[in-house]
Amino acid sequence: MIRTKAILITVLCAFLSALPIRAAQAPQALMMKLEAVPVYQPHTLPSERGKKEVYRATWNGMFSVAIAEVQTTQTVVDGKKVINVRVDAKTSRALDLIWKMRDVILSTFDAKNLEPVHYNFSQRENSRVIDTDAKYDAGTKQWKVYRTQVGHRTRDYRFESNNTLDPISAIYLARSIDFKVGDRLYFKLFGGRYRYLLELFIEKKEMVELESGKSIEAFRILPRVQNTTKKGYAGRLNEAVIWISADERRLPVKLSSKIVFGTVYLDLIEEKRGAESTTAADGKRPAS
Fold it and tell me: Is the peptide bond before 27 cis (omega within 30 degrees of 0)?
């Protein structure tokens, strides 16, 4: 259960190594042929202003188990604007006594077309130390991956991208698409070790209650994932739901996923845009 929580937190914070997804049963045919996965173009680009979101994970809505912070900034590299996203996930002090997690994800992607540039996943989970560094070469359309794990052999390899995204750039691209209720979006993902096919079904709009007790209109999205490599974590999580605000921000505000013993919830508890800061209790909507 604890390991499942780690994956849930570390991948969205946004969607992260094995996504918080309703898992498909393996083996089975893929939802879509990989070569048929669309190449999406962003409809709305992320704000140039720096921003930060804080999410809290709870077990069965009662016990706090982790906090995740998502920070977004924009810089210029080699004359090109890029977006940098940093996700810091850590377990609560109480859970640290049993199982301690301090994970960090860094993702850099083009500010205009949201094409990935660089992805780094630093996993610190008790004695487990793993570092994955992946760079996307736009010229050769390949990912170059360097992965180290204490006590294991270092892996250094390349693979053809074929429109494969890291989890962070994928969720930002998904949020930028002008989707509507009934749509199904598909993405090919690289999570740090294995690769996946992700489906996002935009089920409906509904009112969602925030931690403050206030309600906002949000898209209810059902994610589903399948392994596209021989191994993967697609079967670990199930019956997940993601709620993204229905306003122009398309901000993830809530997530739930059933695990072996109960349900883990991830709730937005704080936002910060530039010099302006709000909390979920404020019920405000800062501009993107």
Answer: yes
